[in-house]
Input
Amino acid sequence: MQTADKIISVSRWTTEGLAHLFPSFAHKIVTIPNGFYEFDKEQKFSGELLKTGSTIKLLAVSRFESYKRLELLCNILYKKPHEFKAILVTDDHGVKWAHKNAPALIKLGSLRVVSNIDKNALKKLYRESNVFVHPSLYEGFCLPAAEALASGTPVVYTSGSALDETVGNLVGVPMNQSATIFDWITAIEYAANLKFTQKFHRDIGDHIEKAPKWDSSAKHLAKVYYSLV
Output
């Protein structure tokens, strides 16, 4: 950081955190958020109207790290093994962790674990899911949450980091870091119900429209770069 001319941060939360930890370098920090993909208003929403008693399809996309709290997803499924079905897209470490710590859920079919998935297959999973679940304690931006929203899928997430900027409570359900498993179950059921789904459909287009786009982020980054050469 000492030798850097500029320090690029991908969210206000990250900028504030860096400035707090390294106040002498605060003047170097430039906030350039990651971008959202464009939202196709004509696409089929993932949040189809669920019939009473229908299985709620969950999706989580995360590499394995302790702060990502993948065990919370498993604990949710242990409480609702038939009402919820989840797909976890993760790295090789996450696959090994899941098979070691949640074999019963995998055998039952409540949890499917996927790795090394291509872009089109992942996009299909986003669109087919009813709720995107992201229990991670900390995120600098969270591209998977942005991708879920751009695919028409509401997000239930842990608040207190940059996810509050990326998602927010209009198109997602923020959870306190100390929320219980039952709190998460209630939030997921709420995000999948008719009332929230209708609200989500009204608000998501505007949310994506106001969100940063990759093109503008790239232009901002180029401007910073060329100001230094």
Q: What stands out?
A: Residues 194-210 form the longest helix (17 residues). The two ends are 18 Å apart (CA to CA).
